[in-house]
């Protein structure tokens, strides 16, 4: 299973603005934010895409969602709202092949389209 840039962030080999970490996951600000708040929640278990997730790994994704919701409440924007996104493979726009949840917030985000011109 290939290494990703996120493994290097977990090992502190490259810098990142880390906002949360526990034994299961790490959360840090996206380097190219698409909203005023854009945080990535990344499990420490290597899983390249959502398509690779096994039934006995369901708690891994559950923990990402709970950590994102906790962060939103802690930072005070849960009531205003936010969006979580997981991109899968080429058509989903995935560029880093370690599953991660994007948390986007801080402004009305509008409806998202298909992205198909
Ligand atoms: P994906 O496109 O795979 O759903 O999301 C990958 C995200 O990782 C992108 O939003 C990209 O900006 C972010 N990203 C890529 N490399 C780095 C990095 O070195 N540091 C941080 N903080 N974010 C990164």
- What is the global morphology? globular
Please write the CATH class name: Alpha Beta
Query: Count of helices?
Result: 3
Give the name of the CATH superfamily.
HIT-like
Unreliable spans are none
Rounded mean pLDDT score:
95
- In which range does the helix fraction lie? 10-25%
Tell me the strand order in the biggest sheet. Answer: 1-2-3-5-4
Q: Structural class, please? A: alpha+beta
Query: Hetero groups bound?
Result: guanosine-5'-monophosphate
Q: From the 3D coordinates, which CATH architecture would you assign?
A: 2-Layer Sandwich
Order of helices and strands: HEEEHEHE
Distance between the termini: 34 Å
* Rg, alpha carbons: 14 Å
Largest beta-sheet characterization: 5 strands, antiparallel
Strand content: 15-25%
Tally of strands: 5
Write the layout of secondary structure elements.
Layout: H1 5-10, E1 18-21, E2 25-29, E3 37-43, H2 58-75, E4 82-85, H3 89-92, E5 101-105
Antiparallel strand pairs: 1-2, 2-3, 3-5, 4-5
Bound molecules: guanosine-5'-monophosphate (5GP).
The site of guanosine-5'-monophosphate (5GP) has 13 residues, from strand 2.
Short description:
With 117 residues, the chain is of the alpha+beta class. It has helices spanning 5-10, 58-75, 89-92; strands spanning 18-21, 25-29, 37-43, 82-85, 101-105. It is globular and about 35 Å long.
């Amino acid at each position: 299973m290939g290494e990703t840039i996120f493994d290097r962030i977990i090992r502190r080999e490259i810098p990142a603005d880390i906002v949360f970490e526990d034994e299961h996951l790490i959360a840090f600000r996206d380097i190219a934010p698409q909203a005023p708040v854009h945080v990535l929640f990344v499990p420490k278990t290597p899983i390249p895409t959502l398509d690779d997730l096994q039934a006995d790994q369901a708690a891994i994704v559950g923990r990402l969602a709970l950590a994102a919701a906790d962060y939103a409440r802690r930072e005070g924007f849960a009531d205003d709202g936010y969006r979580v996104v997981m991109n899968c493979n080429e058509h989903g726009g995935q560029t880093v092949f370690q599953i991660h949840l994007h948390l986007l917030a801080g402004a009305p985000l509008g409806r998202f389209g298909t992205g198909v011109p």
